[in-house]
What we know:
With 452 residues, the chain is α/β, with parallel strands linked by helices. It has 14 helices and eleven strands. Helix 9 (239-246) links the parallel strand 5 (220-224) and strand 6 (253-256).
Amino acid sequence: MALEKLAPGALKAALEELDRLFAHLPEFQAAVPGEDRMQAVLCETATRLGDNFPYFHPLYAGQMLKPPHPLARAAYALATWINPNNHALDGGRASSAMEKEAVAELAAMFGWSRHLGHLTSGGTMANLEALWVAGQLQPGKTIVASSQAHYTHERISGVLRLPFAKVDADDHGRLDCQSLERQLDQGGIGCVVATLGTTGVGAVDPLPEILKLRDRHGFRLHVDSAYGGYFRLAGNLAPAARAAYDLIGEADSIVIDPHKHGLQPYGCGCVLFRDPAVGRLYKHESPYTYFSSHELHLGEISLECSRPGASAVALWATQRLLPPVPGGEFAQGLEASRRAALTFAGRLKADSRFVVPFDPELDIVVWAPRAASASKVSALSQRIFDLAAEQQLHLALIRLPASIFRAAWPDLDADQPTIVCLRSVLMKPEHETWLDRIYAILSAATDAATSS
Ligand SMILES: *Cc1c(COP(=O)(O)O)cnc(C)c1O
């Protein structure tokens, strides 16, 4: 038995409570079309869902996927009995209040006592809002992000018709400040995107140096921490990453994805602005929406109209159980992921079959199997990936510039500019105790791949 089964029981009790709160209404049972076939179709649905990688299992150590907390699962489902729409208070009074509270806790995690912010469908929409605001405040100016930043920044800039330029990344995958400075000297840059936790290798851009450049050049600073934002709470970061996280509150806007490290089901991103006055940029006149409030409601500070109140309810409940504070149970989960990544990288470094280009900054580990050239390494990575998957260990692959191995593997024959590496996101706390099993499968797959 691998799937948790706490959520349905907890949900049933809460549903009785919710039902009781509406007991004053005249008796009513909603018609359920197809009721007699429902169970059969649901079981058929389960059969279809079985065709998946086991994201919930510790042997899934590939992409950035992790199961929601059982409470988030139950709270999300519970909210669907009301099915609130967090566009406006008319559509979701309680869930809008819960969204404001949950988002304020995320802002407080970054040191902000005042902010403007809301949940979005994910990090892409959240980044779109941040860049949209940047474009409004600095019309026609260029958005820059590193070559290791999330690919959507360039595309979003295109959608917003804002000029976009890439800044080089250094050999650790971090934004290169010398390259940024050269671009700033040429002028025309309105907004710099710093990524705190790149999606590919978990690199933390050097925020202290970027802030020094901001003092001189006065650009808007957006921090994309869709994946890495919660690591602000981790007590076991290396000094450079710690220094960056300590200054995250200096940004003008921040994006964080509760559906990545925040134990939420998909459909939960968050954008935060340091200056609440940017709310004026969202101003619109809608004849439909605001009848019950004179305050700026969530629908007036969001580009999306309808939004799931259930996402806010699930996040609120999860943060009530596991507050996002340093030293708390939630923070300990992140620390365990990070320890797993450090231990795993340490074992790989001590194993002559592998090369680790740099130490993990968060919980993503990247490594390459030794072979005669970059092209042979790439082919071998692919074989190990396939053989490990046959033994139920699911890793990921990533194509990176061969230059990341300059320090760790100076005599690598770079017969091609990029190299396919193995990659693991150890984002489940259980990964720490499963490392022996993970390593044993990786080791056997590597032996089989090199001998075949
Ligand atoms: C995942 C991610 C995004 C995109 O977020 P979605 O929730 O997938 O839309 C943006 N930036 C970074 C750094 C990410 O890791």
